[in-house]
Design brief:
With about 290 residues, this protein is mainly alpha-helical. It has one domain. It has ten helices and two strands, in the order H-H-H-H-E-E-H-H-H-H-H-H. The radius of gyration is 19 Å and the shape is globular.
């Protein structure tokens, strides 16, 4: 595997464009963390597009990097929530075990088993990279809908209810989220949080904190499935991770001053546009970025 890097000294004609892309990529890395801190999710859905289109990382490799970045950033974000009593460890274990097993199996077995060229449809060649990006874009569209949609309920008030676990559904949901996380490298918070509220009867704040812990565990363990089989650009990956962690710390601080629901809706529209853009680009204009 060849890691794509930018040699700015040998490409005077495109140096300005590359520098702009790098700066935009690092700024977007901050946004990933800020979003996670402000609204408890959403930021991870941007990680793969940022890596692919701004840092020119090959899509399959980008999903591996994303697991590490999202996992480490979520771990940093969960610490203050745990201290505030917003993490339910029992729920995290029950939901997390099948999810962690599924994401590790996906990265270790399923992703390597997918052929680089899947099929040809006339002049269109469907590659492994294209398939993962299209799947990711579809996931972005679904995520955006869940962020845009207005929630109906009790106005954010927490109702004391006895916690009940629907074990079969939690197990199935955990496996589904784990497989999706393994394939596309996203944390899956928009799937986990509703599942925790509906299937585990958690209050919303606890669902957000618990979701971050589950995302951290399954993403980091899933990333270990790529170790030894890929050449990792640690400098790039750690740089993006550090900026995302700074972002999530800032997001946690801002969350007390900013209307999270309005921000979530606006961010949802942005994710929707990004998802549609990726679908159009990958299906109608394949090739180009990241060595497709």
């Amino acid at each position: 595997m060849t890691i794509i890097t930018y040699n700015l000294n040998k490409c005077p004609d495109i140096c300005i464009k590359l520098r702009i892309m790098l700066i935009a990529g690092y700024l977007a890395s901050l946004v990933i963390g800020i979003s996670l801190g402000l609204i408890g999710g959403g930021g991870s859905i941007l990680t793969v597009p940022v890596l692919v289109y701004l840092f020119n990382v090959e899509p399959v490799m980008a999903t591996a990097y994303s697991l590490f970045i999202v996992g480490t950033t979520s771990l940093a974000g969960v610490l203050p929530k745990y201290k505030s009593g917003e993490v339910n460890l029992k729920t995290a274990v029950i939901f997390g075990i099948p999810s962690i097993a599924a994401v590790f199996f996906t990265r270790k077995v399923i992703v390597p088993a997918i052929p680089k060229e899947i099929m040809r449809l006339d002049d269109l060649i469907i590659t492994k990279a294209m398939l993962l990006m299209v799947l990711f874009a579809v996931l972005m569209v679904f995520a955006s809908v869940s962020m845009i949609k207005k929630k109906k309920g009790n106005g954010g008030k927490t109702v004391a209810t006895e916690q009940v676990f629907n074990y079969p559904l939690i197990f199935i949901e955990g496996i589904v989220v784990g497989i999706l996380t393994g394939l596309v490298g996203a944390g899956g918070g928009f799937l986990i949080i509703p599942a925790l509220v509906l299937l585990s009867k958690l209050p919303m704040k606890q669902a957000v904190g618990t979701s971050l812990l589950i995302i951290a565990a399954k993403s980091l363990i899933g990333f270990t499935g790529d170790l030894g089989s890929r050449i990792i650009d640690w400098k790039l990956m750690l740089s993006v991770t550090a900026l995302a962690i700074i972002g999530i710390i800032a997001g946690n601080a801002l969350s007390k001053k900013v209307d999270g629901e309005k921000l979530k809706t606006g961010f949802g529209w942005f994710v929707l546009v990004m998802g549609i853009y990726i679908l159009v680009k990958e299906i109608f204009f394949p090739g180009g970025a990241a060595g497709h």
